[in-house]
């Protein structure tokens, strides 16, 4: 049974369905769909591990270099891994006709987008955070730097998903959407990358990190507040032009 058949159609009785049960149904459907399509689940994680593993082989295996550049390596790998999975955020729903049904639902579209982005982060961002301590040990990072790195990824990877959702919605249905998505999103990722790596470097040098975490938290709040509305508007434009 396709995903389009599983999504209930809009009926007069369903117009009174509360918002949160509808959002939970969308999240549950996306999580189950990700578990069925395991290549979309494991490809970003495998890419993350491969990129981090190849850096010492291609640049330098010296402990001093790895300890200094480890945070940047892990953050760049996490950024690219998140970018790798963004093209599938709305595309499957668009190709199966589910996205049109979501646009017709009485619930606000920005809440549906928010739910889908959270589901995307749970599938792609959380595994990267769980794998980070192992790769941090491989890159000779100390325990304090690894803990700080995991916390910065916990704050920063949702921002990457929210920003990427806007780009994925804008490029929906276009040819060579992956290349265009990268060109749109990567410049917006730069502040998150700078603050994420800067926090870990400050922690490694024994400097205060409260201001760095505050900036990452502010970026997260800004993305959480604005990105769902922007992505919802972009989805309406993309679907109407398709």
Automatic annotation (TrEMBL):
- What membrane topology does this protein have? Multi-pass membrane protein
The residues that cross the membrane are 41-59, 71-90, 110-139, 146-172, 178-201, 213-235
- What keywords are annotated for this sequence in UniProt? Cell inner membrane, Cell membrane, Cytochrome c-type biogenesis, Membrane, Transmembrane, Transmembrane helix, Transport
Q: What is its main location?
A: membrane
Instruction: Give the location in the cell.
Output: Cell inner membrane
Superkingdom, natural source: Bacteria
Q: Does the keyword Repressor apply?
A: no
Entry's family note: Belongs to the CcmB/CycW/HelB family.
Q: Which NCBIfam families match?
A: ccmB
Its biological purpose is as follows: Required for the export of heme to the periplasm for the biogenesis of c-type cytochromes.
PANTHER family, A to Z: CYTOCHROME C BIOGENESIS B-RELATED (PTHR30070:SF1), HEME EXPORTER PROTEIN B (PTHR30070)
Protein name as catalogued? Heme exporter protein B
Organism annotation: Marinobacter halodurans
Its gene is ccmB
């Amino acid at each position: 049974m396709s995903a389009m058949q599983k999504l209930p159609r809009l009926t007069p009785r369903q117009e009174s369905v509360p918002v949160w049960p509808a959002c939970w149904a969308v999240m549950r459907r996306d999580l189950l769909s990700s578990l069925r399509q395991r290549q979309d689940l494991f490809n970003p994680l495998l890419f993350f591990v491969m990129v981090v593993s190849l850096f010492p082989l291609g640049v330098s295996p010296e402990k001093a270099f790895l300890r200094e550049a480890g945070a940047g390596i892990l953050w760049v790998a996490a950024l690219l891994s998140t970018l790798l999975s963004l093209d599938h955020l709305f595309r499957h729903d668009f190709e199966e006709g589910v996205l049109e049904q979501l646009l017709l639902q009485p619930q606000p579209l920005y809440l549906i987008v928010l739910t889908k982005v959270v589901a995307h982060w749970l599938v792609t961002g959380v595994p990267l955070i769980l794998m980070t301590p192992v790769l941090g040990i491989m890159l000779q990072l100390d325990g304090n730097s690894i803990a700080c790195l995991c916390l910065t990824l916990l704050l920063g990877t949702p921002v990457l998903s929210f920003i990427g959702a806007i780009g994925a919605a804008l490029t929906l249905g276009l040819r060579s959407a992956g290349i265009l998505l990268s060109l749109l999103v990567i410049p917006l990722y730069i502040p998150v990358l700078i603050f994420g790596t800067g926090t870990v470097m400050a922690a490694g040098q024994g400097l205060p990190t409260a201001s760095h975490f505050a900036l990452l938290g502010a970026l997260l709040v800004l993305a959480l507040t604005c990105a769902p509305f922007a992505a919802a508007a972009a989805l309406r434009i993309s679907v109407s032009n398709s």
